[in-house]
Amino acid sequence: xxxxxxxxxxxxxxxxxxxxxxxxxxxxxxxxxxxxxxxxxxxxxxxxxxxxxxxxxxxxxxxxxxxxxxxxxxxxxxxxxxxxxxxxxxxxxxxxxxxxxxxxxxxxxxxxxxxxxxxxxxxxxxxxxxxxxxxxxxxxxxxxxxxxxxxxxxxxxxxxxxxxxxxxxxxxxxxxxxxxxxxxxxxxxxxxxxxxxxxxxxxxxxxxxxxxxxxxxxxxxxxxxxxxxxxxxxxxxxxxxxxxxxxxxxxxxxxxxxxxxxxxxxxxxxxxxxxxxxxxxxxxxxxxxxxxxxxxxxxxxxxxxxxxxxxxxxxxxxxxxxxxxxxxxxxxxxxxxxxxxxxxxxxxxxxxxxxxxxxxxxxxxxxxxxxxxxxxxxxxxxxxxxxxxxxxxxxxxxxxxxxxxxxxxxxxxxxxxxxxxxxxxxxxxxxxxxxxxxxxxxxxxxxxxxxxxxxxxxxxxxxxxxxxxxxxxxxxxxxxxxxxxxxxxxxxxxxxxxxxxxxxxxxxxxxxxxxxxxxxxxxxxxxxxxxxxxxxxxxxxxxxxxxxxxxxxxxxxxxxxxxxxxxxxxxxxxxxxxxxxxxxxxxxxxxxxxxxxxxxxxxxxxxxxxxxxxxxxxxxxxxxxxxxxxxxxxxxxxxxxxxxxxxxxxxxxxxxxxxxxxxxxxxxxxxxxxxxxxxxxxxxxxxxxxxxxxxxxxxxxxxxxxxxxxxxxxxxxxxxxxxxxxxxxxxxxxxxxxxxxxxxxxxxxxxxxxxxxxxxx
Length: 761
Known about the structure:
By secondary structure, the protein is an alpha/beta fold. Helix 8 (about 270-285) runs parallel beside helix 12 (about 370-390).
């Protein structure tokens, strides 16, 4: 059973509301503008719903029109207000110089203000009203700007944090002014009394799907005497206020919800909702001892909890919750796919780590108590899964981890931990400041001893956190010899990490001190950490003051001579999530590398080619300094244009995804297929693949988290060429990364399950 805790994004439709909508579509389907009996019946239905809405909103006067939702209502209100300001200006009656909106408003408001301000040619200043750390508006600032404002836009309750606006405080400032006031009532409907007339609110939009009605239906209240301009002109429906045939099925469903609000019994009382919040808070504190709540409870809706867990990203929490069957979000659903820190929390002035890791849990006022109880049980289980995976919330040491190499990536920069399970010894390579707490936790949970903390070079785009890590983990450091600037023990030829050995190889070019670290086990060389000297699809830039472009040419030859063409190269930056590469792969992908190693490109030509590439190097998509210039040919070199005729259809090189149906057919065949779950260990614990999808039991299943994918790449590269390797994860994003990486390394039968587990039945 899914536990749906994303009610601020949308809610299910109440069963009686669904029935009402179906009845209208099946039986009372007349057009309310028609004058025959079928139309009159529907017209009466609309009038009844409107009357109910007026009673619920305590708005016996003023306009009340049905819309498609809150966005349309906001657009209509903003157009009406700004057109009124334009008319005032044209009449010479004076015009305000600005419009104001809360800094934590839903994006629909500032976007509407900017749109109509430009379209009407008003050139008004559009100013955000600051908020404090509690998310409430700065009333002193508002008062200081009201004399110049023609419109003020605030929301009754915030969709991300649940913070309740001090409407009475704003109403007191607005008293006896002709400034118009728009209040977004979306999250307040059914939860807060708005007192529209008493507070002299001019416009209030509402959305049905936030309170158990269908999507596509909403309302807009307009105060009696407030200026109004129709957004939609046409057939004159809604008393010529909003043309277009009414959504009668949606209105009928909304009417049922409004009736339920009016009669009581369906929606829980405020004190009951507060009790639910207490249960969730207790469960979250037990599951995540360091949890921080991003809005004060006393001025927030009890149905909304915005939380951050130090040391855990929002994505980690959401993946974990999703594996547990808990549906939550990282903030506003409208911006959830953009993977950016919450602008609402940034406006509140909260620390960057807090805003980047925020997750919202929200439930509806009609939620069943047993659902909340099950949510609490699963949240506690999520905490246990994190502890078992040695992530923040761990209170005890675990020595079960056996993965040799673990990788973390922050804005394209890579950090690695080399781990020897038998000795519990570890070396960290290229530590990042953003990972300080994560690395310390990772080592302590494993009861690990730190042999070395190394950098591959002096970094230009970030500071190394190696000194901090050595100081913080001083009690775990095993080697106390004097170190050079990169962390290598002076006069040491190699470093032992249990049964593993690390040797270094000077490869100047990207920087004068650029170094590759060669990882060896009992069988010989198994991987090389090459920093930014060779990246998948790119070479590190050599235009820094500390770069040595001519030496770069020699370093490429040295890497080829010492490391060879097939050894995995692990880069310092991986902007495209390709994980690893080899010189053989890069010779196919990068003509410049191929030219150097075959002797076709001489040293001076190489230096000039690098200079040309780096002359106007733009920042990365993360707005960080690019540490390498892309020189590859832009295709996945491991994917041939076509395969043998007897390959199955899914082996087409341009088809990285495989559908559920195609995968089911392949599983039914006699050919061996490897199914790889690349979710992290905490997700797998909450929802094992075979349990999540019984059909998977027909395949050979491997569990390889994306963070430790590097350990399995050599074995997968050696699979028979016609062995399908299908990666899967929650949404298909991580599995696509894994499949593309393996194809680039030469296994053309690597695929990603389309849509991931989210689309499984």
